[in-house]
């Protein structure tokens, strides 16, 4: 049995953790619920793209790349996004000649012919994702920290509200604002408890695991800091234009290296030079794990790096499961709607918790003022 003193401390921790993180928690949770429909939002914001034909067999990647080089001569094609169940088109991110280093143009292309449609006018869905994952400009560990804070709020809330089953259907509508809001707060927290734990744990993992991984690699590699580095070859052959392998042939090689790979993105690095690479990143057919990747030398067609979460070890598989479980993009439209409605509940909890805290604070202030007034009246009468 938890003592009353411990419960009071946990209640204080629960209250202040919610107040300190409340605004950021609301932004992250609200944007996370909406960003489940990222691709649908992008189509809604660009209605002309939704009207483009959907090809049963998309145009070859080589044709798409040739169209981009024709329409944007001298530009650097960095990424090509393949059509999927929602988006009927190819998309490419192009850095045009003379553009600032951090500026990219998102270009849409027809999936049946690879013909360039033109720049995408709105990237609302991507902006929402950036808001959810990075708060636009912050490091991802901040959102990971919010995931940990959410786990603390869940744990303390469970201990504080010990009669969870009895409170499942408790809603006293005719009482004061704080009582009504408190009942709604508890009901939303209890009914969405499993989902909240899932979202908080996966969000904390994706935000903080890379930070610990970087620290671990730094410690491991720091012992090699004094090792002599190989001398670089002179002559600048790395930037000399050389023939590239077929992008479609490279994709076939990637699928041989990782059976079942369904590439969502193709990244091109130093394309046209002797050190060119093509990276194929995507999901695995009939498997929940995401972010399988194959990097291939574009001049020789030989794989350079292969990441298959099914064979890369337990922790790699766990890491590959985090993103689909967090964003709910593996089960179709019905699952997205479920994630949306459940995802709105932690956003509501951040608002309702703040309102309850403010109302309780005002109530204590009114009681203190009433006590002072009563004491003053007694003193005057005496």
Could you give the distance between the termini?
A: 48 Å
Query: Could you state the order of secondary-structure elements as H and E?
Result: HHHHEEEEHHHHHEEEEHH
Strand content: 5-15%
Sequence of strands across the biggest β-sheet: 4-3-2-1-5-6-7-8
Largest sheet: 8 strands, antiparallel
| Unreliable runs | none
Instruction: Give the tally of structural domains.
Output: 2
How many DSSP-defined strands?
Answer: 8
Task: Using the CA coordinates, give the radius of gyration.
Answer: 27 Å
Mean pLDDT rating: 87
Shape summary: elongated
Helix content: 40-55%
DSSP helix count?
11
Structural class based on helices, strands and sheet pairing: alpha+beta
């Amino acid at each position: 049995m938890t003592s009353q003193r411990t419960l009071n401390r946990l209640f204080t921790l629960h209250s202040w953790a919610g107040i300190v993180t409340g605004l950021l928690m609301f932004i992250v949770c609200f944007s996370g619920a909406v960003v489940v429909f990222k691709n649908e939002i992008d189509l809604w914001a660009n209605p002309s793209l939704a009207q483009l034909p959907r090809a049963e067999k998309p145009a070859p990647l080589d044709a798409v790349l040739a169209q981009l080089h024709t329409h944007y001569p001298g530009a650097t094609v960095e990424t090509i996004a393949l059509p999927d169940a929602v988006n009927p088109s190819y998309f490419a991110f192009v850095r045009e000649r003379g553009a600032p280093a951090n500026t990219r143009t998102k270009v849409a292309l027809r999936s049946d012919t690879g013909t360039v449609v033109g720049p995408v006018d709105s990237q609302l869905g991507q902006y929402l994702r950036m808001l959810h994952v990075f708060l636009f400009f912050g490091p991802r560990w901040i959102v990971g920290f919010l995931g940990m804070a959410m786990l603390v709020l869940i744990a303390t809330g469970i201990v504080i509200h010990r009669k969870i089953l009895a409170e499942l259907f408790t809603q006293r509508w005719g009482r004061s604002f704080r009582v009504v809001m408190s009942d709604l707060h508890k009901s939303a927290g209890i009914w969405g408890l499993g989902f909240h734990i899932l979202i908080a744990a996966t969000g904390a993992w994706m935000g903080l695991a890379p930070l610990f991984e970087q620290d671990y690699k730094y410690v491991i590699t720091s012992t090699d800091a004094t090792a002599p580095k190989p001398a670089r070859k002179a002559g600048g052959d790395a930037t000399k234009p050389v023939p590239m392998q077929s992008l479609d042939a490279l994709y076939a090689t990637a699928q041989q290296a990782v059976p079942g790979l369904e590439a969502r993105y193709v990244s091109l690095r130093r394309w046209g030079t002797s050190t060119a690479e093509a990276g194929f990143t995507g999901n695995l057919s009939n498997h929940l794990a995401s972010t399988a990747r194959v990097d291939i030398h574009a001049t020789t067609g030989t794989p350079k790096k292969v990441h298959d979460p099914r064979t890369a070890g337990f922790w790699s598989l766990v890491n590959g499961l985090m993103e689909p479980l967090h964003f709910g993009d593996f089960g179709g439209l019905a699952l997205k709607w479920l994630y949306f409605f459940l995802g709105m509940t932690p956003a509501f909890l951040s608002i309702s918790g703040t309102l309850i805290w403010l109302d309780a604070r005002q109530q204590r202030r009114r009681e203190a003022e009433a006590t002072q007034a009563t004491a003053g009246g007694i003193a005057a009468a005496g």
